[in-house]
Every structure is written in structure tokens, then in C-alpha cells.
Amino acid sequence: MAHQSSYVPKTGFTRWLDQRLPIIRLVNDSFVTYPTPRNLNFWYVFGGILTVMLVVQIVSGIVLSMHYVPNADLAFGSVEQRIMREVNYGWLLRYIHANGASMFFLAVYVHIFRGLYYGSYKAPREILWILGVFIYLLMMATAFFGYVLPWGQMSFWGATVITSLFSAIDQVIPNLGTAITHWLWGDFAVGDATLNRFFSLHYLLPFVIAGVVGLHIWALHVPGNNNPLGIDVKGPQDTVPFHPFYTVKDGFYMVLFFLVFLGFVFYAPNFFGNPDNYIQANPLVTPTDIVPEWYLLPFYAMLRAIPSKLIGVLVLVSSLLTLLAVPWLDTSKVRSCRFRPLMKQLFWIFVADCILLGYVGAQTADAAWHVGEAELPLVWLARLGTLYYFGFFWVLMPWIGKKEVTRPLPESIAQSVLAKGGH
Amino acid sequence: MKTVWPLLAVLALAVPSSAEDLTQPLAPQTQAWSFNGITGTYDRGALQRGFQVYKEVCAACHSLNMVAFHDLAAPGGPGFTEAQAKVIAATYKIPAEPDDKGDIFDEKGNRLTRPGVLADHFPPPFANEQAARASNGGALPPDLSLIVKARQGGPDYVYSILTGFNQNPPHGFTIQNGKYYNPYFAGRNISMPPPLSQGSVSFSDGTPATVANEAKAVVTFLAWTSEPQLEARHRIGLQVLAFLVLVAGLLFLSYRKVWHGKPEDEGVVHDLPGSPTEKAPVGDPDTLSGG
Question: What interface predicted TM-score (ipTM) does this complex get?
Fold first, then answer.
């Protein structure tokens, strides 16, 4: 770790262990004495929450997989009959796992927006940000595979729609897209083979995520945390040790987060779900509206905003890959939006834009708003939203960063905290 | 933020709406259900009456594949005793296992049956999907085990469908051949004939057998088959959330104590065990970019 270790083994055994495998030193330096900026606010608690949510998902998922049957004829029954009715507290595990996925995404979106607002992707934290984007992409893949497993109508048709996106490649190289799609399915349609491999991948990817989370934390602990001021730590007066200051703060907010999470589990367990997924998958009956889970809706809106399937898919893919370029698209010397009056506004419009795209993604493809006599097809709203999404990153970010007159930065974190009559 | 709010205001004014469309279903009628809310439980009487409606009316066409007879005596369910559930099970004929000659058909070619036991599930009314469609004008009566969770609007929707018959269709609306008008159903043409009528069943507890009462009872029963663990979920939820509120309170006090109990000057970390203060290099931001 970047800061000097202060660990002193106290017993004979810990001295012996420290010379062979300094694991206590690692934990001590990473999560006990780790110097953390003293001004981290509420928005910084979601990293810890995400780590815990990953563990919740893995543990509940492992137990669910003990009862789940990845077979196209038996999967629906193994969830709705066996897990929901026969396994002791199977309903609780299933609702924790399903709502946990939504909560995981809720937390990761706050975490990502926080990083954008405070410029946490800027040097020297580019790799930290990129690893985070990889985690996000892996999460989306894992969630998609997981949603297929109960083998309800939305599972089946969602899998069909998303995997069929690859057939857009046919427009470039004839038959290649179809060949890739069949290869992904393991069949000529989404079926048993697809379900089996999705189950396998759904079990694998969370452990890949856990590995990348390890790298993410490593890449965090080398430069240390960014903070709401976006200025570097200048000395020990700017920091507090992680424990107890941030263990207790993260712990408190984590319990609040769990109150919301378990509130859904116990009192609105199907709030994020789609009723169609309580109907067993039927390849012969297409649901009226195929809607992905809420956390994928903004991207679904972008996909549908483009008339050409191929270009739609390219837009979808680039909207995600764009995130990887953010550290170099932002040209500003100042990290935090607190001192960037223009960027702050553009950021909030960007947040509103993502919510708008999510809203449009949830509506039917031909939906429209009526303002008086005028009719506004939502697909145009999605096009506008898509334009802003890309414009924000590729035009505004590089341009504003050079033009913007930023507000003066404080001398140091400690000075800023004390000036506010801080803690 | 100045520039954001006018935009949001415009968006807020633009209310989504759609032209009058006779095939668009009406919104379900909202009912007060005993199982709503965080302390909601199933009305035991409604569950038993609803079971009677299912058994005497719905079961003629609709299966209930995921429900076993022992569920009828399970906690949080209709509250039959195990003995009662056994008697109910025995009134059903279940396809028998091979007899000691290995036959599952008798001499006349009929399927051998035996009386149901607690471990059996409700037997379906039709042998397969084709048989079901053949008896129902081509339509497939859905399995009812999960019906309340499988429809947008849940219990209100199922109740509205059951009570939404016998209304005059608007002018210009065509009822398709062999279908019935039901304004709550997508497309408003439904294949199911009106299932409930005044006196379809005779309730032994004296509840008047009106269509509304019958519908209310059977929807309560089907809400239970969709979510048989609801009462346990509501009960455990309160315990879990109360515990978390307590933990949150204790953590908040610790949080306050830890953050406000520390010195205000630059020697913030001097008193703390394992402090990095002595060893950490000070004052050179280039070698100490983050900590």
C-alpha cells in the first residue's frame, strides 16, 4: 500500500506470521490505519455498500443454485414450486437475490455518478475508474444471465432480443451475425442449451467481479481516495485513519441502505419485477411488450432510438465504451464539480438525461407525449437524450474543461474543514 | 442549476395520454384486500370460501398445478386441519401408479386412479394443452397457481375480470364469435364465459353468494396460492426491520461519538492507536498524492 506500514506484530506468532505471510499487516494497512481524507461525505459510502452487496448476492446465489435446475422444462418449476414453496426460507433467498440485484445497480449508479461529479476518474485514478467500468459491464452481463434463469416469459424473450442483437452483424458480413447468434444459443433458438450456458456463466462471472473488485480496491489504495474538494491530501492533518472513522460511518449508512433493501424484500418483493416473468417461458407466445430490467432501460432506449439495427447496436456498445475514455475526455485541471460552475449544471442535466432515457426505455416503442395539440413521439425524446449522452462526454467535457472559469480551490482539506467549523 | 429547471418544468407539463381506444382495457377496480399493507394477513374465511369457489367453479377448466393438498393445512393458508385436508384430498382422483401387473389402464382402457393423499397436487382438469384447447373453443385456460402475481394489477385485475362481465359494449364495438365482452381484458374480447353468477356456490358460513363475494373470496384464495408465504414474510419483515432500526440507532450514536469526540486541531490522529502520523512523510504533495 502507498502509505508506510505502521503495523507492529505484538505476539510471537504474529511476528512469525508477518515474516512469512504479512496478511495481518495487509488488512491493518488497508482497512485500519489506511489514511482517508477527513472530508468524505455521504456519497462516498456506496463503495462499501457495493462490496457487501456483492457478498450478499454470491452467498444467496450459491444457496439458490443448490435448489435450482438449469433445464428448460424444469427451471420454472424449480424456482416457483421448489424454491418459492418447498425449500425452507427459499422465498426469502429468492427475493433477497432478485431485489439485491436491483439494489446493487442502484448503489453502483450512485457510485458512478459520484465519481463523475467529483472527478474521481482524473489522474492519478484513471485505472481505478477503468476497472470500475469493467465491474459495471460484468455486472450487466451477470444480471442479464441471471434474469434468464427463472425461465419466465420475460427471461426467455429478453434473452432472445438481446442475443439477437448480434445478428445485426449480418448487415456488414452476411451470415456472420446469424452464425454468432447460433453459436451463443448453442441451438437454432434460445432453448435448453442457452439456459445451461447462461447458468454456468451466471455462476462464474460474480467471482470474476470479485477479482476485479480486488484490483479496484488496490488501485484505490495506491493514490488514496479522492474527496469532495477534489484536491490532493497534503499531509496527515488532511486524513483520518479508516478505522474507526469510516468503518462506523460506512456501517451506519449501510444499515440504512439495508433498511430500504429489506423493506423491498419483505413488503414489495415484486416491485422491480415484471408480472410476465411469473408465466413460464413459451417460445410460441410473444409478450406484448418486452422490457428489460430497469437498470438497463437507458441503453434499451438508445438502442430503439436508432432505426437501423446495426447502428443501434453500435450506439449501445459505444455508449458503454465511452465511459472508458472519460479520464482523457475531461480536460479540466480541477477535479470536483464544486469548483466547476458550468460542469456542475451539465452534470445534473446528464443525470436527468439518463433518467429520461430510462423512462423512455420503459414505454412502448410507439408511445408519445401530448402537449396540447402537439404530439411528441417518445422516440424523438430518446434521440435527443442519446445525443446529449454522447455530446456530454465527447463534446462538452473536452471543451468546457478548457474554457470554464473555475472557482478558487481551498489550500488544503484540513483548512477547508476547519474553516467550516468542521467536525 | 438555473438552466435545468425550465427544461424539467416543460417535461412535467407534457403528460402522456392516448386517444380513446375501445380495445384498450380499463384500469382495474381497486379493492381493499386483507393481505395488503405491512401487517396484512389472509382472511381465513375468505380463503376457505375461495377454495370452495375454485373447487366448484374454476377447477372445471383451470389447473392449480403448484398447490399440494398439504398446503391447505399449512400455516398462513386456509387453515384447514390436517384431517380436513386429508378428506379433501381423498375426494380427488389421481392417476394411479402402475399396479402389480405393471398396468396403468384397466381392461376397458380407462386410466387407473386412486384417491388423493396430502402429498398430491391438485390434478389438472385436462390431460394436456390440446385437450384443454379442444374443450374451450381453442383458448387455453391458464394455470391459476401464480395468476395473481402474473398479471399487471394483481388481485385487483383478477377481481375486475371476474366481475367485469355482463356490461354493454360501447357503440361500434364488435364482440368476436365465441367471445365475451370484458372491458378489463386486453382487447376486451375474452374467451372465458362469465364464470360466476348469483348463487354459483352455496357458502356454509352464511355469506351471501353474490358475484362480488364469490370473486373476492376466490381472488383471496388465488392470492394465497401465488404467495403462500406472505404472512411469514410480513411477520419476519417487521422483526428484521425493527432490529435494523435498533442497530442503526446504535451505529448513529457510535458515529457521532467517533467523529465529534476527536480533537479539532491538526493533531487529529495523534491519539489513535496504529496512527501513521509519525512515519508518514509530510508536506510534499508530489510524493503523497493521496495518502
Answer: 0.92
- Using CA atoms, how far apart are residues B264 and B85, in angstroms rounded to an integer? 71
The answer to whether B16 and A369 are in contact (CB under 8 A) is yes
In chain B, what are the domain boundaries?
Answer: 21-67+121-228, 229-265
pLDDT, average across residues A357-377: 90
- The CATH classification number of B21-67+121-228 equals 1.10.760.10
Rg of chain A over all Cα atoms, to the nearest angstrom: 24
* Alpha-carbon gap, residue A159 to A141, rounded angstroms: 11
Domains belonging to chain A, first-starting first, are 34-419 (1.20.810.10)
- C-alpha A111/C-alpha A131 separation (Å) is 13
SS3 B203: coil
Size of interface A-B (CB pairs under 8 A): 187
Instruction: Name the residue type at position A170.
Output: D
Average pLDDT over all residues of chain B: 86
The reply to whether B11 touches chain A by the CB within 8 Å rule is: yes
Q: Measure in Å the smallest separation between the Cα of B53 and chain A Cα atoms.
A: 23
| Average pLDDT score over chain A | 95
pLDDT of res. A73: 97
Q: Pick from A81, A266, A345: which is nearest to B240 by CB?
A: A266
CB contact under 8 Å between B280 and A35, yes or no, is yes
Total-model pTM:
0.91
Q: Does A358 touch chain B if contact means CB atoms closer than 8 Å? A: no
Cell (9 digits) for A412: 488544503
Confidence at A4, pLDDT banded by 50, 70, 90: confident
Distance of alpha carbon A244 from alpha carbon B111, whole angstroms: 72
DSSP output for B236-265: HHHHHHHHHHHHHHHHHHHHHHHHHSS-SS
> Which of A345, A348, A369 lies at the smallest CB-CB distance from B16?
A369
Q: What's the confidence (pLDDT) of residue A421?
A: 60
Q: Which of B229, B238, B240 sits opposite A91 (nearest CB)?
A: B229
pLDDT of residue B172: 85
- Tens of pLDDT, residue by residue over B5-61, are 444 444 444 444 444 577 789 999 999 999 999 999 999 999 999 999 999 999 999
pLDDT for the residue A2 = 59
| Chain B residues with beta carbon closer than 8 angstroms to that of A356 | 11
The answer to whether A259 and B244 are in contact (CB under 8 A) is yes
